[in-house]
Amino acid sequence: MKNIKLVATDLDGTFLRNDRTISQRNLEALEQLGELGILRVAATGRNLRKVSEVIAADIPFDYIVYSSGAGIYNWKEKRHIFQQNIGSEAATLLSDYFRKMNYNFSVFAPAPDNHRLWFHKGGEECEEFNRFFSFHDTWSEMLPVNGSFNKGLCQFLLIIPENEENFSLLKKEIEVQSDQIRVIRSSSPVTRGYIWVEVFHHEVSKGQGVKHLCSLLSIPEEETAGVGNDYNDLDLLNFTAYSFVAGNAPGPVKDWFQEVPSNEEDAFFHAVQPLLP
Q1: Is the dihedral of CA 213, 157, 153, 94 positive or negative?
Q2: What is the 3-state secondary structure (H, E, C) of the chain?
Q3: Considering the domain 88-201 in this protein, what is its CATH number?
Q4: Handedness of CA 214, 114, 34, 76 (dihedral sign)
Q5: Cα–Cα distance between 244 and 228 in angstroms, integer?
């Protein structure tokens, strides 16, 4: 790891503790990486507004790959440098399909304004879906009947009880609707026992976002390291040359990458320790 030029870390469950605070060791490690000239990237499922709720403006990241790679933001210069949204035709098609199937789902405005969203309540009550909107009610409104999305959308979100077979079937069902989209699985950050089924443009993932950033900055893949803790980090960890998972990750994720202590025990610090003086 001596030639590392970029370190990318997930936030929730990895860099952040369970109460969404940053440990002193993680913060000091971040600062030391900057002193060494190593770029520090947060790769998160959060939109930018949600990032600012847990990362203060003076926390020394260089770039934010937000909304699972739908956008990239220069944290120091406060400048958007990349967005990838679902096109208007596919967005309208999927919205009509999910409504026809009477699913609980939400749709998010195109990045970088994807803190704004619309929702459709389906035929089955879902407590987790209701909880999600208790955190987003300021920026959400009911999906209009027969609405179309001329500017496209950043993503769709469906929430289902945790069941591997049901998720696999739903993933296939959704992805066959359009070749422009892909489904990304994420464990619920709100309540255990639920899967967040996130639908993005087919080129969107945390790994693709970091790969695009590396291309812009002329950083070879072999000079990168990544830290994560969940299924939506897999593309990131498969891209980075040196990849680590926090001890609190699901069992299958821990089987594939080198394990470090949990997010409550300074996972980020332990992953980058070999780089520090």
Answers
A1: positive
A2: CCCCCEEEECHHHHHCCCCCCCCHHHHHHHHHHHHCCCEEEEECCCCHHHHHHHCCCCCCCCEEEEHHHCEEEECCCCEEEEECCECHHHHHHHHHHHHHCCCCEEEECCCCCCCCEEEECCCCCCHHHHHHHHCCHHHEEECCCCCCCCCCECEEEEEEECCHHHHHHHHHHHHCCCCCEEEEEEECCCCCCEEEEEEEECCCCHHHHHHHHHHHHCCCHHHEEEEECCHHHHHHHHHCCEEEEECCCCHHHHCCCEEECCHHHCHHHHHHHHHCC
A3: 3.30.1240.10
A4: positive
A5: 7
pLDDT of residue 190 exceeding 80, the answer is no
Closest CA to 240 of 205, 190, 270: 205
For the residues 248-262, what does the mean pLDDT come to? 93
**Closest by alpha carbon to 45, among 245, 258, 177, 190?**
190
> What does the chain come to in residues?
277
Question: What CATH number should be reported for the domain whose range is 6-83+205-275?
Answer: 3.40.50.1000
Count CB-CB contacts under 10 A for residue 139. 16
| Of 277, 276, 242, residue with least CA distance to 260 | 242
Identify which of 77, 86, 81 has the alpha carbon closest to the alpha carbon of residue 65.
Answer: 81
Using 50, 70 and 90 to split pLDDT, how confident is the model at 251?
confident
Give domain limits for the chain.
6-83+205-275, 88-201
- Across the range 79-95, mean pLDDT stands at 96
